[in-house]
């Protein structure tokens, strides 16, 4: 077509990448087609160079990632017991306190985590009050460590101390274990940094009454199949991170007959029933260790770029790979979403908790398309939730055929976050989560969506390139 005739015909516009031009077309009611495009690696030349350096190793990386994904998929996690942390968690001492996220010193911890540690020290009888607890925490006499280093996970502050009862998950295929505390419910709870007498009394009741009853019920049951419950819950509108209504009810259904058969009094059984029945978030502390035990099955898969942990401590966000024991860390982002009445974004602490292990596994935020009801809780619209669940397949090495989303024509959930795909596409994993107040004990102030910092994946790539080249020379 000659330039003379160019403007005599209708112009058909294809908008590539730029959202600002797209908005102008819509204002002027001009028809257009939008192509959602961004340069690879967001134009970062160093990342592009590193991705190119991995081209000669592409086949073994792909084979390693297939192996990692298959090992994760093979996991058959069972809840087999509730025991005190000291008795079952590896390398746990009476003066050990585990926390969420990557390792961090007490003096650098966020408010909710410090508050929860104070509560744990009082609960353990190592301190009589807050002043004594702070002095002890600062003395060096307490060993603080990431729960992930001990096959464990915890929501929000994620604090686990020696006497706390933990769910024991056993993978009957890969023969590994994971652990997580009992969910306390909502309100003033330790995981948000509350440490009042009410909180300590509840923890003591969990230790002295709830745990013994549930443990005996689990022994009578032979174990509860957590994988099966997650599968059913995803078909009932849960995503098993922020929405656990169906999964908690399913768990209560399965364990109830065995609670009735225990030797405990009717009053004790009634209290245990009511505690689970009134706590819609109970199953979170089962879905998390299930995801942990499954992802840990891929530990040590050489040459794999699959992520097996994403965790936050309220200061740093960290990721770990199947092929490495290292943490790749960057400052945690702030959650964006809906604030509870009376709170503003300035009240919230940075992203905190181990619960992003659910997204690492491919549920939680990755499965929001199957849980439309969660959208109002975290902010957004249902169509956005559908888009997130579809988009996550762009950055994963596989899919989990067992976990499917009915609202998306039974699409399998995305599985195996691949750092190379994250950096190539510029698409970051999506996490839906609660917001903790920056001060200890205030509690939850909102809920929303958050992404990991891109720097975590850039660090992981740099280290991976170095390692794979060293291994081949």
Provide structural commentary.
By secondary structure, the chain is of the alpha+beta class. The chain folds into three domains: 3-37, no CATH class; 45-68 and 298-471, v583 domain like (v583 fold), CATH 3.90.1700; 76-290, Enterococcus faecalis V583 fold, CATH 3.90.1710. Helix content is 39%, strand content 20%. The chain has 17 helices and 18 strands. The strands form six sheets. A four-stranded antiparallel beta sheet has the order 8-7-3-9. The chain has a four-stranded antiparallel beta sheet with strand order 12-11-10-14, sandwiched between helices. A three-stranded mixed beta sheet has the order 5-4-6, covered by helices on one side. The chain is globular, with a radius of gyration of 24 Å.
CATH topology of the largest domain: Enterococcus faecalis V583 fold
N→C terminal distance: 57 Å
Provide the spatial order of strands within the biggest beta sheet: 8-7-3-9
Q: Strand tally, please?
A: 18
Mean pLDDT, nearest integer?
93
Question: Which blocks of ≥5 consecutive residues have pLDDT under 50?
Answer: none
The structural class is alpha+beta
The assigned CATH architecture of the largest domain is Alpha-Beta Complex
- CATH class value of the largest domain: Alpha Beta
Query: Looking at the structure, what is the overall shape?
Result: globular
Radius of gyration: 24 Å
Query: How many domain modules?
Result: 3
**Strand percentage, roughly?**
15-25%
Helix content: 25-40%
- Helical stretch count? 17
Biggest sheet: strands, sense, closure?
4 strands, antiparallel
CATH homologous superfamily placement of the largest domain: Enterococcus faecalis V583 domain
């Amino acid at each position: 077509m000659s330039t003379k005739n160019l403007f005599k015909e209708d112009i058909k516009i294809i908008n590539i990448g730029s959202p600002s031009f797209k908005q102008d077309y819509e204002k002027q009611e001009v028809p257009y087609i939008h192509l959602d495009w961004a340069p690879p690696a967001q134009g970062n030349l160093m990342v592009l160079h590193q991705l190119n350096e991995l081209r000669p190793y592409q086949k073994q990386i792909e084979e390693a990632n297939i192996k990692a994904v298959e090992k994760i998929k093979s996991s058959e996690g069972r809840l087999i017991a509730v025991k005190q942390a000291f008795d079952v968690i590896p390398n746990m001492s009476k003066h050990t306190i585990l926390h969420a996220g990557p390792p961090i010193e007490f003096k650098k911890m966020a408010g909710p985590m410090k508050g929860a540690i104070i509560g744990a020290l009082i609960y353990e009888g190592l301190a009589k009050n807050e002043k004594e607890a702070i002095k002890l925490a600062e003395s060096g006499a307490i060993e603080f460590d990431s729960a992930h280093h001990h096959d464990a996970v915890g929501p929000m502050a994620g604090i686990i101390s020696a006497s706390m009862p933990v769910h024991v998950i056993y993978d009957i295929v890969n023969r590994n274990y994971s652990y997580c505390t009992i969910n306390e419910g909502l309100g003033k709870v330790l995981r948000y940094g509350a440490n009042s007498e009410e909180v300590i009394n509840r923890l003591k009741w969990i230790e002295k009454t709830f745990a013994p009853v549930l443990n005996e019920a689990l022994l009578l049951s032979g174990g509860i199949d957590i994988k099966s419950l997650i599968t059913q819950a995803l078909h009932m509108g849960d995503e098993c991170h922020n929405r656990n209504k169906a999964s908690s009810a399913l768990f209560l259904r399965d364990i109830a007959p065995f609670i009735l058969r225990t030797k405990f009094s009717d009053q004790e059984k009634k209290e245990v029933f009511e505690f689970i029945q009134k706590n819609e978030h109970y199953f979170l502390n089962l879905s998390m260790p299930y995801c942990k035990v499954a992802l840990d099955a891929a530990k040590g898969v050489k040459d794999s770029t699959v992520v097996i942990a994403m965790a936050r401590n309220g200061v740093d966000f960290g990721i770990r790979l199947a092929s490495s024991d290292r943490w790749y860390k960057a400052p945690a982002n702030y959650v964006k979403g809906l604030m509870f009445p009376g709170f503003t974004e300035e009240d919230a602490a940075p992203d905190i908790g181990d619960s992003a292990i659910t997204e690492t596994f491919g549920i939680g935020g990755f499965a929001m398309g199957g849980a439309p009801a969660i959208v109002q809780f975290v902010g957004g619209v249902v169509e956005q939730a559908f888009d997130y669940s579809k988009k996550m397949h762009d950055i994963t090495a596989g899919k989990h055929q067992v976990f499917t989303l009915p609202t998306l024509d039974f699409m399998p959930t995305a599985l195996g976050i691949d750092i190379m795909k994250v950096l190539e596409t510029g698409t970051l994993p999506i996490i839906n989560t609660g917001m903790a107040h920056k001060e200890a004990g205030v509690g939850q102030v909102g809920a929303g969506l958050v992404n990991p910092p891109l720097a975590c994946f850039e660090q992981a790539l740099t280290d991976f390139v170095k390692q794979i080249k060293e291994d081949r020379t």
